[in-house]
Amino acid sequence: MKQDEKLRLGWTSLGVSILALAMKYLAWKFSGSSALLSDALETIINVAAALGALWALTIAGRPADENHTYGHDKAEYLSAVTEAVLVVLTAIGIAFVAWKSWWAPPTDLTPWAGVAFNALGGVINLVWGLVLVRQGRSRRSPALVANGRHVISDVWTTVALVIGVSLIPITGYARLDSILSGLVAINVLRVGFQMIRHSIAGLMDEAPDSETLQTIRTVISEHATGALEAHDLRVRTAGSVSFIEFHLVVPGKMTVDDAHAICDHVEHALRRHIGPALIHIHVEPEEKAKQNGVPVLS
């Protein structure tokens, strides 16, 4: 995905978040429910997250420079970490709302209009959250994936609240409102910690999943014709860019030109299969073979 396409997704995400927030705000105003207020508070974070993702995508799209010779892609992880921290803080705020509501439960709830507005906001979030996660995963954008996961987590909260708030006038149990707020806080906190874990993994250069690693090994094995083996493979990702390093063992009498041609062939094949990548290949003579690396298919 080109940078301008990512930015269009970011701007659309901001607009969708503001629209959903308007629906959640109307839901609270029409109902007076603290549970629906909690949902609106969570949606405020969606707006903040969309702004953060826009900033991150703008920074990440800048080319490498003298101060950032590997590019700016990790800005997306910074945005995701910031969003996760905001989510955790929101959970604490929602828990406070639930606590106040428990000791002073509402006595004049009018939930039906509020439930309708809340459900509409949930539908908007569901559709857009699925789009963000799908596009973020296919384009390897941590900022878009984090934003999408947060939006989808808001949908499950909305479903629970629509059911729960509708039961309050039926059961006559006013404290159900505060219980629902507390459950929202727990769910938001869970999502926040998951987001922190995922973002920190990126900042700490965690290796990609086993499927991606196997793809890289297979590509090297099938396209390094003329070499003997590859070993000491190391891979990390930063946003949409992969960083790949390995040693390539070639026959000792092979010319520099021939070894260079093999490296070029492997690099082109890797980029075709996994997308943008910075690749460093250290060529070694055959006596450096370790016999436990990636075998090259003749």
Question: Which characteristics define this entry?
Answer:
membrane, alpha+beta, 298 residues, Alpha-Beta Plaits, Alpha-lytic protease prodomain-like, zinc efflux antiporter activity, 2 domains, 4 strands
Q: What can you see in these coordinates?
A:
- The chain has helices spanning 3-31, 34-60, 75-103, 111-139, 142-171, 176-203, 210-223, 256-274; strands at 229-238, 241-250, 277-285, 294-295.
- Helix content is 69%, strand content 10%.
- The model has no long low-confidence stretch (mean pLDDT 80).
- Strand 2, helix 8 and strand 3 form a beta-alpha-beta unit.
- The longest helix is centred in the middle third of the chain and has 30 residues, at 142-171.
- It has eight helices and four strands, in the order αααααααββαββ.
- The protein folds into two domains: 3-203, Alpha-lytic protease prodomain-like; 210-295, Cation efflux protein, cytoplasmic domain (Alpha-Beta Plaits, 2-Layer Sandwich).
- The protein is α+β, with helices and mostly antiparallel strands and 298 residues long.
- It starts with a helix and ends with a strand.
- It is elongated, with a radius of gyration of 25 Å.
- It has a four-stranded mixed sheet with strand order 3-2-1-4, with helices on one face.
- Belongs to the cation diffusion facilitator (CDF) transporter (TC 2.A.4) family.
- It comes from Kozakia baliensis.
- Its main location: membrane.
- It is found in: Membrane.
What sequence of helices (H) and strands (E) makes up the elements?
HHHHHHHEEHEE
Shape type? elongated
Rg, rounded, reads 25 Å
**Averaging pLDDT over every residue, what do you get?**
80
Number of domains as seen in the coordinates = 2
Low-confidence stretches: none
- Estimate the helix proportion, in percent: 55-70%
Tell me what portion of residues adopts beta-strand conformation: 5-15%
Report the CATH superfamily of the largest domain: Cation efflux protein transmembrane domain
